[in-house]
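Moderator note: this is an archived Q&A kept for reference. The question asked for a predicted structure of one protein chain; the sequence and the answer are reproduced below.
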Amino acid sequence: MFQKTLTNPSSLHKPFGYSHVATAEDARLIFLAGQVALDRDGTLVGRDDYPAQVRQVFANLGDALAAAGATFRDVIKMNYYCADVVPADIQLDAVRAVRDSLFDGAAPPASTFVVIRRLARPEFLIEIEAVAAIRVP
């Protein structure tokens, strides 16, 4: 029997928009490679437009999840990598605007958000990777 649990131990601070602990028992794990703002033809979406890149990255993640038989509700872990050229005051806001429309606010996935000097290509402003867990058939 598959069981996914997203929890926040009382000994840790209360998180905003993520869970501290994610577990999946008797599940098939799906690891998604980091996604960037390239469309299906390999064309950059949102040059110098961070919110547009965030939207495209989440769309790519949705497509990758679907290809593996999963949805955003199955995601248990997210890693965000944001280029430091993105103004600090919009880094999280743009992500939250999309993320919060896709995940259960009462039990969001465990997450890490990292600001780095740059990504593999300088025009990439954000890259997101995910882990999902689904019932074993």
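Archived answer notes: The domain at 3-135 is CATH 3.30.1330.40 (60s Ribosomal Protein L30; Chain: A;).
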